[in-house]
Give the backbone structure.
Amino acid sequence: MTILSEKTPSPAVMGVINATPDSFSDGGRFIDPDNALSQARAMVEAGVDWVDVGGESTRPGAKPVPLQEELDRVCPVIEAIHRELDVPISLDTSAPEVMREGARLGISMINDVRSLEREGAVAAARDTGLAVCIMHRQGEPETMQDRPEYSNVLEEVLGYLDRRAAELQAAGIPGDRLLYDPGFGFGKTLEHNLVLLENLEAIVARGWPVLAGMSRKSMIGGVTGRPVEERMPGSVAAATMAMMKGAAIVRVHDVKETVDAARMVRAAREQGSLRE
Ligand SMILES: Nc1nc2ncc(COP(=O)(O)OP(=O)(O)O)nc2c(=O)[nH]1
C-alpha cells in the first residue's frame, strides 16, 4: 500500500477533525477553520500520523448535508492544514464533488463510509489516484441503528468488503489503493461490534490495510458504562486491541493517548522481530 508505506508508520494514528455542528462527540468545536487548524496542529504536535477531515456527521440519526454546505465546511479546513502543517489528510466524504475538490486541495486519502456508492463517486475516486478507505455499513445513518441484524456479522462484513473491493478494481481503482474498514457502529449492535473487534485478525488477513474507528462510540459506552466525555480510556484500549490485531490505522479523537499506545505496539513489535 504505497500511501501508507511512504507517508506513515504502521500502526498509524488518524486524528478526527469533524468540521460539523453536530458530530456525536465533538460537534461544533471545529467547524470554525481556525479552531480546526489549531486542533490539527495540536494533534501533529502530539505525534499524529494522519488527520481525517469531515463535514458531515454520520452518527446514528444524522441527516445528509447539502453539497455546498459540506464544501464550505471542509475546504477551508483542508486548505489551512495543507498550507500550515506537514501531515497527510484524509477526507471523510461520500460526495464525488467533494472528493475532487479535496484532491485539488491536497488530500492524500478518500475516506468514504458509503464505499463510493453514490453516483459519480467511483469515477471521482479513480480520477484522483488517491487511496480509498471502503467501509461496511448496514443501512443509512438515519436508521441504521433501529434494528441491525446479521446471520453472521463477520462473514457478512467480509463478504461486502471483498465484493466491493472486486467491483472497484474492475472499475479501474487499483487494489493497492484500497483500505478495509469494518464500520464499527454503522448498523451494528454492541455484540456485533465486539465480534468484529475480537475477530479483527480475520479482516486483516484479507490483505488490505485495515482502518478501525471505535473512538468514543456507543460500543465503548456499552462496555464501560461511561458517558461520551469519559470514554477516552476505553477508546484507547479498543484502539490498542485493534493495533495488536493488525489494524494499520486507528481513527481517534484522543490523539496523544493513542499515539503513546501506538508507540508501545510498534516498539514491542520491532523488538520482538529482532528476537526471532
Ligand atoms: N473510515 C471510517 N470513517 C468514519 N467516519 C465517521 C465515523 C463516526 O465517528 P465521528 O466522525 O467521530 O462522528 P460523526 O460521524 O458524528 O462526525 N466513524 C468512522 C469509522 O468508523 N470509519
